[in-house]
Amino acid sequence: MMQARHQFSTPSDNWCQVHFADSEIKVLRASKQYIYDDLGNEFLDCVSSSAHVGHCHPHVVAAGHAQMLKLWTTQGFLNDTYSQYMKKLMDILPESLSVVYLVNSGSEATDLALRLGRLYTKRHDVAVFESSYHGNISSLVDISSKSFKRLPQGKKDFVHVIPLPRTRNNIENDQAEFCNEAQKVIQKASQNGTPVGVFISEIVVAAAGVVIPPPNYFKTVYQMVRSQGGICIADEVQTGLGRLGGDFWAFQGYGVVPDILAFGKSQGNGFPMAAVVTTREIADSLPEYMSTYGGNPLACAIGKAVLEVIINEKLMYSAKMVGKFLLEGLRGLMSKHPTIGDVRGMGLCIGMEVVCGRPDMKPATNFANRVLYLLKEQKVIVATQGEERNVIAMTPPLCFTLENARRVIGAFDKAFTKASQNDDVAPVPPNTSILGLASIPSNILGENEEEMPGPAKRQRQYEEMD
Ligand code: PMP
Question: Is 453 a member of any domain?
């Protein structure tokens, strides 16, 4: 099986980097939050964020099947499924974001968002986070610091890199410092005569190992970008549609509304679809847009069914509650395992930083990898993320239960105990105080009443669906 992958792919091809390359899993089927291999094993899937409402959810499968039997054209004709889906999408978006482009992948969405931003501002320069990832199209490789770092040409002049707002100790101090750093980058670009047109970022930076900026960070930085004539794009390919629990969008938790929103992954529960949403004014700057498959009836039927499941099964509330339990349980392990440097997250987007010890926080990549395999032995599937691949990331389907969370916490405890009996990381310093713990206030998921539909409206939506 692996031989075929290597034969028809290349080592640099991300597709070839299968989970558990040393003892790969051949998956035969999947259901809810479980995947099943050819040996009859059942694994708890903590990584498939695209199986947002659960693998092969019957409502989504039925909607796709019914649509395929009825109408399965490409774009260009009018159809009811599209209008019904748009109506549902509009219900969960801020009023200002009123124009939708349906596309086929997260990369296509972020690329189009970038194009819109550049056309509207008539500027080419882009500000991004350090360790960012926005997709695999050339335009995005240029602006994804995770990607361009690996290329011989490195960073291009039109890209301005903002240090990650990685909260460690004191949120107030961190916040001021991070906003200052962002300001310096934006000011410098202006002073050099190449002002930033577009600031594109994840709001909770999943690609960098689940980095959670301080609560007022985006209010300040969006204002900085806009006041010098730029626009802000939120890349919610990973975080959108309720992954962070409680709300549909990560930006809601920060009291901001982006000028352009890009999302994907979860939107089709694994079916390739994504979207860009923006204001009428910005959309007017794009003279023409055409996508053969974007917005086809099958995608719309599936996208609509996914939204129905999120709402009917109250998955965002469940993600919030189960995620909090999982986060606290994993944080509880820090007192026992000094190689857990930090555990952070929101809803069902959680990252555990594996380090040689606290407070030094030197990344322990091999150790993290060993933990990964020890979890696999216990039939729990996680992945590593971040620049040093030492952050164990968990983005399970939103139907993840409290019982699943308990199992994961127990499995982590066993895996760290076993890994540290034969570890290859530096000796742990005697001081094991929890310095790396980023304590994000629980009110961070609060809403900005002025800019968003607000809790009352959303609650009504839930009641209407009941
Ligand atoms: N943006 C972010 C934040 C992502 O995580 C990804 C995919 N991992 C993309 C964009 C690109 O999405 P896709 O792989 O669907 O093209």
Answer: no
